């Protein structure tokens, strides 16, 4: 009896072991299925995770890999592991592995079946920001299409009128127009340091001056003197020969160049020097020199009756024979690499010259110029700078218009 009872107990114990073993195998298969489903859900929910470009994986134990921007602490598992991620419609679980080697470092590769989640997420974010910025810019441009401003203000005697549509002439490969040129010339004057004596003694003519100068010096009528007196309104109250420098932008044949008249110091015992700077060597320097000489001669004829030589920086014996003591130089300068940046080069000539010019130029100072005076890319880079400056001015004026109505919208601008 006892032996039979022991046999039955032994058989029952063996049966229990068999059942337990079967359950363990089922559980292992179940765990494998769950892990597989978890990995599938990792793939399906990875599209919009905030990774930087190039980051494609992270370690479930919290260690970083390939500079991943998203990491989870190692104690988080199961449902808690998703707490460091944005909440999604689909959730997933990272189940602990039974393999101790895998438990040390589990790499969850976040891949989408159709596309790369990392690049798409980054591009999608950048794209949305770009679209929003572009839409805002388009709305602002449409609102300002007929607007114009006066820089630096309407009450400034040398204010420059600019239409919002003038900004189109700062597009890539576009030619600069007079409003753009005159805006930046005025900007340079206002930005110049008040302690720079050379700049204080500069006189800037705008882009319309040279064509009027040619009319005045070529006038053949019997009223030539009175014609020149009317022309003098362009620099009313300014004695040209007391200035250190006179800057004149030249616009002819769809091209820009620059003339700088340098008035020497009295001790230098020399006459004015006319400099011509051309980034394409397109303008005829001889013709320009002739017109500027005639202009200086006419102004000398007018002033010598009214101004004492002691009031001028020019030596008296030079002043008495000034027309014969005028010198001129074609200045070698960096050359533009295209046919549309000439206006930018003229503005950069001005800007660079204002930064480096001595109080009074002497002939030995001409060595400051040359083909390597600056890199051509520096001049070409002004296009973006001026465009941004103008947009900022229109934004400021638009904001002020809401309060003071200082911005006018006349329904269009003449070219």
Automatic annotation (TrEMBL):
One MF term in the entry's GO annotations: cysteine-type peptidase activity
**What SUPFAM superfamilies does this protein's entry cite?**
Cysteine proteinases
**Domain Ubiquitin-like protease family profile: residue ranges:** 160-353
What the entry lists under InterPro entries is as follows: Papain-like_cys_pep_sf, Peptidase_C48_C
- Region Disordered: start-end pairs: 26-88
Q: Does the keyword Protease apply?
A: yes
Comp. bias (Basic residues): 38-51
An annotated GO BP = protein desumoylation
Which key words are in the record?
Answer: Hydrolase, Protease, Thiol protease
Which residues fall in a compositionally biased region of kind Basic and acidic residues? 26-36
Where is there biased composition of kind Polar residues? 71-84
The record ties this protein, via PANTHER family, to: UBIQUITIN-LIKE PROTEASE 4, UBIQUITIN-LIKE PROTEASE 4-RELATED
Q: Which family does it belong to?
A: Belongs to the peptidase C48 family.
Q: What is this protein called?
A: Ubiquitin-like protease family profile domain-containing protein
């Amino acid at each position: 009896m006892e032996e039979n009872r022991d046999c039955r107990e032994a058989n029952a114990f063996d049966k229990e072991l068999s059942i337990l073993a079967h359950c363990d195998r089922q559980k292992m298969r179940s765990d494998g299925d769950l892990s597989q489903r978890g990995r599938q859900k990792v793939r399906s929910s990875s599209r919009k995770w905030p990774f930087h470009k190039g980051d494609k994986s992270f370690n479930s134990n919290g260690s970083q890999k390939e500079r991943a921007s998203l990491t989870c602490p190692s104690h988080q598992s199961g449902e808690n592991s998703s707490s460091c991620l944005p909440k999604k419609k689909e959730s997933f679980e990272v189940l602990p592995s039974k393999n101790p080697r895998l438990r040390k470092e589990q790499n969850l590769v976040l891949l989408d079946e159709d596309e790369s989640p990392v690049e798409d997420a980054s591009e999608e974010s950048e794209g949305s920001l770009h679209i929003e910025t572009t839409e805002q810019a388009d709305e602002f441009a449409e609102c300002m299409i007929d607007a114009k401003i006066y820089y630096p203000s309407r009450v400034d005697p040398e204010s420059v009128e600019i239409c919002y549509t003038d900004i189109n002439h700062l597009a890539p490969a576009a030619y600069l127009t007079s409003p753009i040129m005159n805006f930046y010339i005025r900007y340079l004057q206002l930005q110049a340091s008040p302690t720079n004596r050379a700049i204080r003694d500069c006189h800037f003519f705008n882009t319309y001056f040279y064509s009027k100068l040619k009319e005045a010096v070529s006038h053949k009528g019997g009223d030539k003197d009175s014609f020149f007196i009317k022309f003098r309104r362009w620099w009313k109250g300014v004695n040209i020969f007391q200035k250190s420098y006179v800057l004149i932008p030249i616009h002819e044949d769809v091209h820009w160049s620059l003339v700088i008249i340098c008035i020497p110091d009295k001790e230098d015992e020399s006459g004015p020097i006319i400099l011509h700077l051309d980034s394409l060597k397109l303008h005829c320097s001889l013709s320009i020199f002739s017109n500027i000489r005639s202009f200086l001669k006419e102004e000398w004829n007018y002033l010598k009756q009214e101004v004492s030589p002691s009031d001028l920086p020019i030596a008296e014996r030079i002043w008495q024979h000034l027309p014969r003591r005028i010198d001129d130089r074609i200045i070698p300068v960096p050359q533009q690499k295209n046919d549309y940046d000439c206006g930018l080069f003229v503005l950069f000539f001005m800007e660079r010259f204002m930064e480096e010019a001595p109080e009074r130029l002497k002939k030995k100072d001409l060595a400051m110029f040359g083909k390597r005076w600056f890199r051509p890319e520096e001049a070409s880079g002004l296009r973006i700078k001026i465009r941004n400056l103008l947009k900022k001015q229109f934004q400021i004026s638009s904001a002020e218009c809401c309060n003071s109505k200082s911005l006018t919208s006349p329904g269009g601008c003449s070219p």
